[in-house]
Design a protein that fits this description.
Layout lengths: L1 H8 L7 E5 L4 H13 L5 E3 L1 H4 L2 E5 L7 H13 L1 H4 L8 E5 L15 E6 L16 E4 L9 H6 L1 H9 L6 E4 L5 E6 L3
Antiparallel strand pairs: 1-8, 2-3, 3-4, 5-8, 6-7
């Protein structure tokens, strides 16, 4: 329901974060999952102790299948006020090693960030299902902080941005076929 999603996005009493469950049809979910499982564009490996233990694929390394680009175009069409002036700039996918924690706290260089979770929920070996998901901190960095500064000076981010807000965040649990769309300044 696009109007209610856009209403939630612009609600001044909450951060600009929306969760859309079952965003893909079963056929599209299956096709994208198969594409990523069989793809050979996983070129980046992140060192577990430093970065969290995962491999990445990026649009400039070959991750640009028609169905992924179509999804981006459909989001722009279905959510015109959220996506206005924000065409797809970058696309990436990650595969995680379940022995490690995943991506560390960071900021993405974007206006609107869309995370889409594809892995079957049965693949989560944590029987409590408390692992996985996404934590979006709601404190916005000062306007004079650039992308590199935010992502390299983690002590400064913690001390000047997160600690004063008592690490205020919105935590979104993992769920297969769930999209999380949020303001990338969060």
């Amino acid at each position: 329901d696009a109007p209610s999603i856009e209403k939630q996005w612009y609600d001044p009493t909450t951060p600009s974060i929306v969760v859309i469950d079952d965003i893909l049809t079963p056929a599209a979910l299956s096709k994208i999952r198969q594409l990523l499982l069989e793809s050979t564009v996983w070129y980046e490996t992140k060192i577990p102790l430093e970065y969290g233990g995962y491999v990445g694929a990026y649009i400039d390394d070959g991750l640009h299948h028609r169905i992924l680009l179509q999804l981006a175009m459909e989001l722009n069409t279905q959510l015109p006020t959220i996506m206005a002036g924000h065409p797809l700039q970058y696309l990436w996918a990650y595969k995680y090693d379940s022995e490690y924690e995943g991506i560390k706290t960071h900021a993405d260089q974007a206006a609107v960030n869309v995370n889409l979770w594809l892995t079957d929920e049965d693949a989560n070996l944590d029987t409590s299902k408390s692992s996985g998901g996404l934590v979006v901190y709601t404190a916005k960095p000062p306007m004079d902080w650039d992308f590199a500064r935010y992502n390299t000076d983690t002590n400064k981010v913690r001390e000047e941005l997160l600690e004063p807000t008592n690490y205020a965040n919105v935590t979104i649990p993992y769920r297969e076929n769930r999209a999380v769309i949020f303001d990338s300044m969060l």
